[in-house]
Amino acid sequence: MIMSILAVPEEKLSKTGASVQLSPYERKLLKELCYILTPFEDATIMVQKDKSVSASLVVLIYMGLTHQINELSVTYNNKLVQTLKLSLEKRLGGSMSDDNFSLAAMLDPTIKLRWCNSSDSMEMENKLLLNAKKYISSIHVDSESCDTDDSPPQKSLELTHQHQEFLVS
C-alpha cells in the first residue's frame, strides 16, 4: 500500500484535495521503510505458496534475511532495523540448530547444499546418512516384530534391504 502511494507523483497527490499531505521528509521515510521491508515481503511470498513445501526454505530465508538486514544502510529507521534483527533471531534463529529444517533444505532438489560451506556440507551429509540408517533400522525392527498379516509385502522389504546396502556403501 505504501509503494502504491509513493508511486503517485506529489503533484497528483496534492490535486486530490486530501486534508493530509506527505511532506518530503515523510516520503523519504516511507521510501526507506519500503526498502527495509522488501526482503521480508519477498520471503513472505515464497512461503505462502499453496502447493509447495516451505520447510526447506526456512534456513535459506533466515540466512538471506539476516544477511540483507545486516547489509542495510538506513538514515531514518535505525531503531526499526535493530528491532527486526532481534525479532528475526528470536523467531527463526532456532531453525539453524534444528536438524529437520537443515535436512529439509538439503533434500530439496532446488536447494541441496548450496547454502552450506564445504565443512558444513560434510556434516550435513553425515547427519542425513545417520537419520536414514536410523529410519531404515526402525522399519526393519518394526517389520520383524509384526505378527499380523498386514505386514509390508516382500517387495517392500527387498527395497528396504536395497536401500540399506546403498547407505552402507
From TrEMBL:
Name of the molecule in the record: Uncharacterized protein
Species the sequence originates in: Mytilus edulis
